[in-house]
Amino acid sequence: MRAVDVMTNDVISVGDHAAVPAVARLLAERGISAVPVVDDDNRVVGMVSEGDLLHRAEIGTECRRSWWLDMMASTDKLAGDYIKSHSGSVKDIMTRDVISVIETTPLAEIAVLLETHRIKRVPVVRDGRLVGIVSRANLVRALAMTIDEAAVGAEDDDRALRDRLLAELKTQRWAEVSPANVTVKDGVVHLWSSYLSEQEKRALVVAAESIPGVRRVENHMRRVPVRLLI
Domain 156-223 carries which CATH code? Predict the structure, then answer.
């Protein structure tokens, strides 16, 4: 699946001329954690999140350092912190280096971006213009949709299911499984392999359960006894 398959099209955004209190009110009323900032051509120029609004003079939460940290901080850093906590313009507090994706970006790549950069949503752009947004909630909904998709594949015959599972296991270095130890009957996968650890056993079961069309997995595996060599 790609960004276009799950993104929210009716995106809540603000103009780059917006006032900070108005953006704070928008986040609170809509129950969202961040909002894209766009220019007059609907091009994404920034992002304002709850984190950008944490340290504000109006509520007494501006950054306060001990005197010796202030002495060590550069004047540029101190001036930047002052602007962030006192300016009433979105242009001054927004994050300018916006992480964005395009409509064809795979969901797996988006998930990595959200996790790596510790953000909750990412704008979707077309030629730089905002066309949608993908949030963590969108990814969760996409996962929920796969329940129905799996049901469609339930008519696959047993041979096709077995071939898919064996192909998946072949790509995994930890999965040393002989094809003879994998059988499928009426959509039920039977695993007869031996295993060295509980993690390996669970991974084999998960791999089988992840194949669309598999009804359930029967575990007949036995653990390999560990012998101490003297």
Answer: 3.30.1340.30
Alpha carbon distance 34, 53 (integer Å): 10
Among 3.30.450.20, 2.30.42.10, 2.20.25.90, 3.10.580.10, what is the CATH number of 3-143? 3.10.580.10
Residue 179 and residue 166 in contact, taking contact as beta carbons nearer than 8 Å: yes
pTM, entire model: 0.61
Residue with tokens 């961040």: 34
The answer on pLDDT for 46 being more than 90 is yes
Token reading at 64: 């306060």
pLDDT single digits (tens) 6-23: 898 888 999 989 999 999
Query: What pLDDT, in 10s, does the model give residues 108-119?
Result: 999 999 999 988
